[in-house]
Amino acid sequence: MDAILQQFFNIEIMAKAMPLVLKGLGMTLLICAVVIPLGALGGLAAALGSVSHNRLIRWSAIAFVDLFRALPPLVLLIFIYAGLPFAGIRLSPFAAVTLGFFLNNSAYFAEIFRAGLLSVPVGQTEAARSTGMTATQTLIWVTLPQAVRNVLPDLLSNVVEIVKLTSLASVVSLGEMLHAAGLVRSLTYNASPLVLAGGIYLLLLWPLIRLISHFERRIAS
Amino acid sequence: METVSNRAGTPSTATLSLRALHKSFGTFPVLNGIDLHVQRSEMVFVLGPSGSGKSTMLRCCNRLEEPDSGAIWVEGDLLTGPGVDLNKMRQRIGMVFQSFNLYPHLTALGNVTLALRRVLKMPRAEAEAEAMAALKSVGLSDRARHTPAQLSGGQQQRVAIARALALKPTVMLFDEPTSALDPELVGDVLDVMREVKEQGMTMLVVSHEMQFAREAADRVVFMDGGSIIEQGPPDRFFAAPEQERTRAFLSRMRG
């Protein structure tokens, strides 16, 4: 029992690891702050493309979404960071993470936005257009607000997934939280820093998960 | 008002003119050459069995459906054809839908102000004043801050009428405005439509409310198989229909 406490819940080691892990948390949050808005915008663009009347735009959008949903994000990230240099394209760890997660997140956001857009009855568009609103005005003021509201729990779930996904950035030595915790673990031969990082993820994401449940109940009622 | 015959009115004098309108869905013809002229302040009621093309005809009148051929004029201005500023024209053509189609994420007031603010570019205060006036005219000024979910079907449809009226259109299209309502809520909506007519609005109404047609319409048009079979003032239309198909339809409706 004591050995388990020593190995996983060593307060002393956690305290020592804390500054580095918190610095890693800062990087995790920075990645999220860049990648989530970018992915959401990219996803919205791809979703609009996938419901476009223009066949070329529609097919391109669907191909994009299919490709990056099928490609494992770890494979994508390693390819961008370690594969592209063979073509002379050398990206910093942060740029590689941003690009890889942008492509991956856009594809997932696109599917959610697409479902949201399709959930808005066509009568809404007809009503708006009958008052002289343009297609763009109709999208901004009528269709999109309802689409987002209808898929809000799924959008937030995707945000949770992305926060967890950022730990993949450790494979390209970007100093986010898992990378920091792993570093301390290897220096101390003790798993407590990993438990610490896990605890911080839990504290960070649990409120968001409660919020999602709240929205899901509200939509169901 | 004098009786308006099939040929009365030209595209230049009628408020709404349809000329030789054809429309097919795939190979199935829905409209087989519709000619219809609605005069200023006239309420024209369109009756017909389902599948007769009456809703499609109505939806062509603001080009929610594109006619295959033929022409439509609003106050002498061509609505169909290339180079028409459709969004501009649609401001002059109000439409009320069977399923209300209120924006569920906005209040009643927000539903009415949206086009005023985004299409007419009115400042918020002015748009809200206009919208409140429109809501008052349908008897719902006390419901301005309610969302559609908090309103009855009849109230929702009256908000939808206010939304269309607020743009001060020259003609209003009603696509089965009471078909989705519980029977006890139909009366309120019909009362509002009667008031809209009394204000001098030009109205083209697709509906099954025969009693209302008899009381309020200036003219009744009967459609079947994508064509206008017969039309006339309601007294004559209901008392002495000329065509066999009209008689058969009316007797079915009366049960």
Automatic annotation (TrEMBL), chain A:
The keyword Transcription does not apply. It is a multi-pass membrane protein. It is found in: Cell inner membrane; Cell membrane. It comes from the Bacteria. The chain crosses the membrane at residues 20-47, 59-84, 91-110, 187-209. Keywords: Cell membrane, Membrane, Transmembrane, Transmembrane helix, Transport. One of its GO terms (cellular component) is ATP-binding cassette (ABC) transporter complex. Belongs to the binding-protein-dependent transport system permease family. HisMQ subfamily. This is Amino acid ABC transporter permease. It comes from Aliishimia ponticola.
UniProtKB/TrEMBL annotation, chain B:
It comes from the Bacteria. This is Amino acid ABC transporter ATP-binding protein. The keyword Zinc-finger does not apply. The keyword NAD does not apply. Belongs to the ABC transporter superfamily. It is found in: Cell membrane. GO terms for molecular function: ABC-type amino acid transporter activity; ATP binding; ATP hydrolysis activity. Its main location: membrane. Keywords: Amino-acid transport, ATP-binding, Cell membrane, Membrane, Nucleotide-binding, Transport. InterPro entries: AAA+_ATPase (IPR003593), ABC_ATPase_HisP-typ (IPR030679), ABC_transporter-like_ATP-bd (IPR003439), ABC_transporter-like_CS (IPR017871), MetN_ABC_transporter-like (IPR050086), P-loop_NTPase (IPR027417). It is a peripheral membrane protein. The lineage of its organism: Bacteria, Pseudomonadati, Pseudomonadota, Alphaproteobacteria, Rhodobacterales. One of its GO terms (cellular component) is plasma membrane. Residues 16-250 form the ABC transporter domain. SUPFAM superfamilies: P-loop containing nucleoside triphosphate hydrolases. PANTHER family: AMINO ACID IMPORT ATP-BINDING PROTEIN, GLUTAMATE_ASPARTATE IMPORT ATP-BINDING PROTEIN GLTL.
